[in-house]
Sugar (Pentulose or hexulose) kinase
Amino acid sequence: MSYIGVDIGTSVIKAALFDDAGEQCALESAPARVVSPHEAWFEQDMEEVLTAVAMVVRGLLKSAAAQTAGPPTLLALTGQGDGVWLVDGAGRAVRPAVSWMDARAAGIADRWQADGMSETVFRRTGGAMFPGCPAPVLAWLDAHEPRVLDWALTAAYCKDVVMQRLTGVRATDTSDAALPFLDPVTRTYATDVLDACGLAHRADLLAPVVEPGPTGVLNDEGAALLGLAVGTPVSAGPFDLPACARGSGVDEPGVGHLIVGTTLACQVVIDELDMSGEPAGLTLPLGRPDRWLRSMPAMVGTAALDWVLALIGRTHDGVDELLAASVPGAHGVRCLPYFSPAGERAPFLESGARARLDGLTVQTTPADVVRAVCEGIAYAARHCFEAAGLSGDVAICGGGVRSKHWLRLFADVLGRPVHVAPSAEVGAYGAVLAGIAATGLDADAGAWATTRAAATTVVGPGADSTRLYAGEYDRYRATVDRARTEWKERQV
C-alpha cells in the first residue's frame, strides 16, 4: 500500500509518496505562478494550478518507488488557505482566483477594523479579518464585480477547487471554513457573522462543511488528468497550516508549531477557546471537539529573505555562509520584517505595516543585512507565539529550516528547543493522516508517529545567544509599538 499527499502551495506545488510504514519515499514539485494585474493585486489561474497538480502526481507515479509500491491507496490534498476561488457548478473558474496575499480589499478591512465590526467577528469566531481573507474579498467583489458572484456557484478554497474537479464533490473542511464564517463550537456557519459582513445574500456561495473532511473518488476527468485509476479514494483538507501541525505530531495543549515558509505561521494547540486579547490570527478546529489551533500566520516569512537575497545577488544556497559571516545582533543592523504590501495580520492587524532596516552604515555588509532580516523574522515568530500562548517546545518545518544557522537562530530567539521532522513534506504527510482518518482506511498511524518521533532532530538554544537575543527582542517590541502608532497616523 502507498499514499500520495499533494500540497498545493502559493509558489510551489508538491506531491509526496508515502509507503505502508508512513515513510516518504519520493517527491515531485512544480512552480506555481502568482500574477499581479494591478498594484497590490495577486491572482492565480486555476487551470495552471490544476495542470501543475497533474504534473507532480504523474511525475511521482513514474518514480522507482511508485513502480515498486503499486497503485496508491489514497490521494490526499492540502494547500494554501484564504483568498477566494470562484467556480461554477463544474468547478471551473469564473474569474482568476484572488490570493490570500491580495490587498484590493484593504479599504474594506480597514473600515471594518475602525468601526469595530472586525472585533465583533473576532469575539464570535476567534478569527481576525485581513485584506486577503474571504469576507473582505467577497465584499469587494460584491461591490465591484457583482455579476461574477452571480455567475459563480461556489466561493471556494484552493484545495476544494482541485477536489471538485477530480471528484465532483463540492465541499470544504472546518479549517478552511474557519475564517471568518465558522462557529468554532458548533462547526457550522455563523449566520450572524455573514449578516455583520453584509454578505447574508451571498451565503449560498459557501460550500457545505464536512467533518472530518471531504472525501470522494476520482471521476473519469480526474483519473485521466492524473494518470490514476477511476475510483481511487481522494480526500481534501485540512488546509496547509493545520495539515503541517498534524504532520509534525503537534496535538498537546501549549505545544507550538512553526512553519518557516512564504507565510511565517506560528501555531499553538489549545483546549479552551479564548477570544480575548487583541484581535489577530485564527482559531482553527483540530480534528476533535476539544482541540483547536491558535494560529498566528504572519504575512511574510521566507518571502522577506527572498527579497533581500535578490537585492544582493545571492541565493538560498548561500544563507548559511552569510549568517556565519555576521554576528548575533548583525553589527547593530535591525529589521522590522513587514514586507507584504497588504501589511500584517498576526500578531496584530495593521494593513499599513511596512518593513524597515535601521542601523545601516557604509561598513554594513550584505551578511549583516541578511542576518538582520533573519533575526527580525525570528523576533516576529516569538511575538506571534507569545500572543498565541506558547508554553511548550516548538516543532518546526518549511523551506527555511534548510539553513542550519537560521534553525539555531530560531531556537536562540525563542529560548526553547525546536524539533525538526525527519521528512520535509509534513504538510503532505498531515494531509495523508487526515485522509486516512476521514476515509477509514486501514493504516497503523500510531506506529508511524512513534517511528517519526524517534527520527526527529532537536536543536536546543545556546545560553549566551539566548541572553543577547532576549534584550534585542525587547528592543524589537518597543520599535514595533512605536511603528504601529506611525502606521496609524500615516493612514489618517
In short: The two ends are 60 Å apart (CA to CA). The domain at 3-242 is CATH 3.30.420.40 (Nucleotidyltransferase; domain 5). The chain has two domains: 3-242, 249-420+462-491.
